[in-house]
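dumping this here before i forget
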Amino acid sequence: MKILEKFPISDSEKIIDCLKSFADSTFRIIEYPLSRSEFHLYLKKATYPETYRKGFGRFFHEKALEHFVSLKVLTLDKQAVVMDVASSASPFPDIVRDFYGCVCYRQDLIYPKGVHQYQVGGDACALPFPNNSFTHFTSAPSWLQYQLQEFHR
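structure:
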């Protein structure tokens, strides 16, 4: 786990614990090759407001890379119904809609409780939707905070 060498010990231990819980579940962890040139093309195409870029400061590229990887592994199309959990002020749901023309909800505890068009307020572990309402789920990197069983639902 060389990637963890750059994290403080407490963060590394939390990440290792989380990865172990994934290993004990039905999820499979794999290495995924990325193209720097594809990422740069993504950054040119994706619309990130200047306030978002400045808000993340030196961490903006890391956040954008999380979005880029999500799009690479999700294989979205127009029929997709996506939930972005812990979305806050992220432009990612808008990027998903712009790139693919599909439905993309944004969820966060800071939003008013309930479903308001494509904004969902409340606990991500108790989403107010029937099972199998979504074809795809993303939460970069907030998945560390949620119970794995909610991903299965």
